[in-house]
Amino acid sequence: MDVNGDGVLDVLSGSYSRQDKDMAGLFQVLHGEKGGTYRKAEVLNGSDGQPLLLPGGEGDGADISRICTRAFACDLNGDGKLDLVAGNFGGTFCWFAGEGPGKFAPKATWLKAGGEDMKVEMHSDPCLVDWDKDGDLDLVSGSSSGGAFLFVNEGSKTEPKFGAMQTLVKASGGHGMVLGGDDAAMPEVTFGDAHLKGPGDDTRVWVDDVNGDGKLDLLVGDMVTLVHTAKGVDEKTAREKLAAWQKKQQAFFKQPPPEGEAGQQKWQKEYEALEKEKEAFAKDEMTGHVWLYLRK
User: Fold this and answer.
1) Is the C-alpha dihedral spanning 172, 176, 179, 184 positive or negative?
2) Residue 252, burial from CB neighbour count under 10 angstroms (0-12, 13-18, 19+)
3) What pTM did the predictor assign?
4) 111, 51 Cβ separation under 8 angstroms
5) For residue range 136-177, what is the model confidence (pLDDT) as tens digits?
6) How far apart are CA 242 and CA 240, in angstroms?
7) pLDDT, tens digit, for every residue of 222-234?
8) Are 180 and 195 spatial neighbours (Cβ–Cβ below 8 Å)?
9) How far apart are CA 201 and CA 277, in angstroms?
10) CA–CA separation, 82 vs 104, rounded Å?
11) Helix, strand, or coil here: 42?
């Protein structure tokens, strides 16, 4: 995206949080230069010269709406100026109105859907595109629980008004192993990845015409924890040993929480040793895939 309007593409990014002051995710931009190189990342400021920050909430969850920012630049209100739409940890969506090349209003506005704050289940990640080909921008997002969701712009190109959330891809419900809990809560482990039929958790989306047929397709990235048998161990043996290990894990988490720094360090070492035991028969792999949904 050409953020500053100089005719060269830039890289725009959000961030989890800032550490020097209050807990809030900054926006950063790597300005592009002719020849395909980029300048060092700079904090994206508002037109008042201060860093752009999402508004905070109240109480214990005050920072939830300010961290893990996900940036998307587009002309949301059709005035010819580039706006900034952002997701966050809490799952809502905010936009900073554009004020000209590279400039944005200092204060953000929460986007609404059906009169309420537009929201997915945490980790909103906006991708704005004319999904229904009616001339205005609709919003597509993933979420921490997986899936892909659509908010149709029922207003116009210059006065966006979003409708209720629609599900494009159902949330996964989780593919990873569950820590703690009782025996009944532990799922049966399936080794490898052949059992995966769709996106897992923490989905991120992109919309494009992948196969060039004139229809917008949906790309969904995810995160998943796969379980593999250790070298030389068959699945039957690995499953039996893993079941016994899970009982030890459950017992470990039922212990009272340690007190003091020394107690916490001891707890951490004990848990690392427990994890090491598992590597003799099964190994976890945290990875992700990109799933393609072709538009009919």
Assistant:
1) positive
2) middle
3) 0.87
4) no
5) 999 999 999 999 999 999 999 999 999 999 999 999 865 444
6) 5
7) 999 999 999 999 9
8) no
9) 27
10) 8
11) strand
